Amino acid sequence: MRVSLAHNLRLTAGGHTGGVQVLLLEDEPRLGRAVEGALKAQGYGVRWAKGLEEARDAFLELEPDLMVLDVRLPEDPDGGFRFAQEVRQAGYKGPILFLTARDTLEDRVFGLDLGGDDYLVKPFHLEELLARVRALFRRQAEATGARLRLGDLEADLAGRAVYHRGRRVDLYLK
């Protein structure tokens, strides 16, 4: 008997340690390697799943900060959409970027209404994909009021302010 993603998500909740983790669902080997390499070159940890079952397992193990999902998979032409729906129903709050050749207006609207945060049509440039990933994380940080800390420095991303030992630091353009 298969236990639901929602049940497993509750069992594994608690977060991961380490850097930003991306779950990539892409069945095409050449594109998967290119996207994986580009994301890793930017410092992201990447788990590349080539099918739905592998993606489900990776989701439970990884607890990703971002998911990049191909929609059309060999085992299911709507597989990426179905997987996104499953993880949203399980309580996943992170950003989802659909990466697909399905370019109709109906598909794009459906993907975004389903819970996707962005939709990039193939073919695309890796630079655009990386810019969209950065934008998704920036919007997420602003929405949650995230603060980054490094030693005595703290950056309030939503408030666009920097603090040193609790005191605001005024930054100026030169």
Automatic annotation (TrEMBL):
Gene Ontology molecular functions: phosphorelay response regulator activity; transcription cis-regulatory region binding
GO biological process, one term: regulation of DNA-templated transcription
Swiss-Prot/TrEMBL keywords: DNA-binding, Phosphoprotein, Transcription, Transcription regulation, Two-component regulatory system
SUPFAM superfamilies: CheY-like
InterPro entries linked: CheY-like_superfamily, Sig_transdc_resp-reg_receiver, WalR-like
PROSITE patterns according to UniProt: RESPONSE_REGULATORY
Domain Response regulatory: 21-137
One of the Pfam families matching this protein, by short name: Response_reg
4-aspartylphosphate found at: D70
GO cellular component, one term: protein-DNA complex
Domain of life: Bacteria
Protein name per its UniProtKB record: Response regulator transcription factor
Source organism of this protein record: Thermus tengchongensis
